[in-house]
Amino acid sequence: MPIQNSPYQAFVTLLTASGHSVSPAELHGHLLGRSCAGAGFEHKAWLAEATELLSGEPQDNVRNALIGLQEMVKGELTSDDMTVVLLLPTDDAPLPERAAALGEWCRGFLSGFGLTRREYAMSDEANEVLRDLAAISQVQDALEESEDAETDYMQVMEYLRVAPLLLFTETTKSEAPAAKPSLH
Questions:
Q1: pLDDT digit string, tens, across residues 75-90
Q2: Against a cut of 0.85, is the pTM above it?
Q3: In this structure, which long-range contacts are made by residues 13-21, counting pairs with CB atoms below 8 Å and at least 24 apart in sequence?
Q4: Matching NCBIfam families, A to Z (predicted)?
Q5: Contact (CB, 8 A) for 170 and 126
């Protein structure tokens, strides 16, 4: 029996009850993508973008959940843990459902990153991460339940827990003021 009180399921329930059809995975991916591209963590800008994604002004309970989600992302990106928790269905959800949510998350990430990114050169490694996310975003629910598919899914999940950190590190490094020359 699926866990009904997972953070993902709670967000699905909250958004659905409020009449919003966007998936929590896409919403979280978008937030993380914009944050990794250098959007900062100011609530007003995030809520303005979220209002567009939700196709309407969020009610207070949704607004508070969005702010909480942003605080979580800020904590993950700025801590030393080097891991991100993805807002996706739990492992007991059917694999096709999890794979579809993973694709939505990647599309959201790319959208948030692309809308926010400023002009600066990115390393080959960062560009490769973006290409990987684009490929993963094409995942459809064609994934059949099997041990190999489950293993592939878990490997992609592990990759996506660290890939955003590389982009965040690179973009924040790009925006840092040039170091003052040291006097020797």
A1: 999 988 877 999 999 9
A2: yes
A3: 14/61, 14/62, 14/65, 15/54, 15/62, 18/58, 18/59, 18/61, 18/62, 19/56, 20/54, 20/55, 20/56, 20/58, 20/62, 21/55
A4: PRK02166.1
A5: yes
